[in-house]
Amino acid sequence: MTQTDQSRPYPNLFQPITIGTVTLKNRIVMPPMGCRHDVGGVITDADVAWHEERAAGGVGLIITGGTFMHETSVMRGDPGIHAWLEHGLKAMTQRVDAVHSHGAKIIGQMLHLGRETTEGQADWAQPAPSAVRSPRDAHVPYAMDTDEIAEFVRAFGLCAANMRKTGYDGMEIHAAHGYLIAQFLSAACNRRTDAYGGSTVRERMRFLLEISNEVRRQCGDEFTVGVRFSATEDTPGGITLDQTKEMVAVLQENEAADYISITRGMRNWYVKDNTWPQGVSVDLAAAIKEECDLPVLVTGRITTPAYADSVIADGKADLVGVGRGLIADPEWAAKALGGLTEPIRPCVGFVQDCRMSAGGATCAVNAAAGREVIWAKPSLDIIVPKRRIVIVGAGPGGMEAARLAALLGHDLVVFERDDKVGGQLRRAARAPFRAELMGFAEYLEAELARLSVEIRLGTGASAESVSAEDPDLVIVATGSIGEPVPAELADASFPVLSVWDLMDDQERDLGRRVVLVDDGTGFWQGAGAADFLIAQGVELTFVTPAAAIGSALPLESIHLLHRRLRSAGATYRPFTRLAGVSGDAVRLKDTITEQESELQADAVVLLTGQQSVNELADGLRSRELHVKAIGDAVSPRRITHAVLDANKAVRGYKPVTAARRSLVEQLA
Known about the structure:
Elements: E1 17-19, E2 22-24, E3 28-30, H1 45-56, E4 61-64, E5 67-68, E6 81-82, H2 89-100, E7 105-110, E8 127-128, E9 142-143, H3 146-165, E10 170-174, H4 180-185, H5 201-204, H6 206-219, E11 224-230, H7 241-253, E12 259-263, H8 282-289, E13 296-299, H9 305-313, E14 319-321, H10 324-328, H11 332-337, H12 372-375, E15 388-392, H13 396-407, E16 411-416, H14 424-428, H15 437-450, E17 454-457, H16 463-467, E18 473-476, E19 480-482, E20 496-498, H17 499-504, E21 513-517, H18 524-535, E22 539-543, H19 555-567, E23 571-573, E24 576-582, E25 585-590, E26 596-600, E27 603-606, E28 610-612, H20 615-622, E29 627-629, H21 639-651, H22 657-667
Parallel strand pairs: 3-4, 3-14, 4-7, 5-6, 7-10, 8-9, 10-11, 11-12, 12-13, 13-14, 15-16, 15-18, 16-17, 18-29, 20-27, 21-22, 21-27, 22-23
Antiparallel strand pairs: 1-2, 19-28, 24-25, 25-26
Helix pairs in contact: 1-2, 3-6, 13-15, 13-21
């Protein structure tokens, strides 16, 4: 092992390492994540900018994701990359060159989904080792014959050769997450009795070994080949750790891989939200590394440089994958190395924008993610006329606006009526599993301190006090307030309170039987209140007019919420609204049949609406000041929108549609 440089803050993390024939400058890897910024199977400028920003941020290796090797794996409207397209190679080369220009290496991950359609609509019947339906899909796949298996093996080799042609340093074979190759590996989905099936792991590995051999044949031994496994699929009857150990041993015997990448879980389960501990796959990787001579990469909730360095130092893995952390802060590696003085912008782990955004992955705490073509870091280095800016409100939107304005050199002051910064983040972070939200507030507060931004805490702003600052621009980030409980519910014989009141005063005793009434939005306001209430040991009835509880939550979070609520005995009442209260009874009405029912309760918690606090903006405009309202002051929405509005207000904004189309037009 290379001698560590103890003068660096994280000496183990910044050791070089060689995998196959590729030498990396450090152990930090951006693991494969389809950024969904591509059009027609071809890489766009937006995709290139996404990857280049993270290469410039100091990672040693980028593994690109979302790359398919055969048309039968493509869903309608799917923005993934089609690696067999000759007319897409020019753009692929551009991305490789952009990553290489910053000293990072690049490996492309290749996959076929098999029976998993990932919520898309397939134009093809889905191939699989056997005609066994996935529990996540409605349709039964067909069993591939040996001719089609051979065709797929050749297709993997052809697409790998295209990668090699465009300058890629290697290819990673995706044999994880329950996709096609994993389906061949798993006894739960592979019922074949021919050469591609069997009762043992070794027998079921033939498809994978043939793919690796074909890649070697078409690309040569200088092309690094990796294989990604789910160490455990975390599902009944799925692949286990012992089976994965055996697979790795077979790969080593056949010299079929230069490194192993370890993750866990299957579709809708492999990206772990903030309810999981840090390093969810590290112990699994360590168990594999004990019996493996190949370099081992591990991913999954590795969020801080200190923890990442300890994984290497303790010999649990050779490389660490930082995925969502690099979406939140592309300079994660450079900041860890000490090359930059700013703190790392933390990922809050809620997978709502990186996993759910239509039109390309984005980030709740980093509005520039997915918009690098217009908001890359160099855009903050331009010289702009210095202005006097007043910002009212030190919630996430106001603080983000202040951070950006200070970086651009503007003269500014922030008014905040409370004695603490954070705004509604503080309330949201009080719910179980939501405390990481405060990490973002603490990051912004540290940044404003570093940039010497004046924050006047405990100081409400008026039209007169703001005007007295003689501002060139006023950014109003005054947020919103929760609507009160309707007056007709105030006379109940038991407490009836809003979710906002519940989270602001968590000490009150609500009794044993609590009815929680969501308004149908199905997002974290109601879900967080439910988590809080069951943690208090109440008997919870969760009422919503929607068809399902938590319908707006990410797939990676919703089943965990259901597990928590249902395990605690919560009762669900979908298609139901609150009709009223009388005595100690709660009246409910079915939203479809209009049929009424009653149940006994000791308290009702109601998710009421929110109202923008925008009187100040109106008053300032009447004085003919230049005013931009952002976040909830415009319309009550999410943290994502407050941060995005702040960037628009300070940086300016141009749609990225043209950038997404440009490469496709060039190649047409």
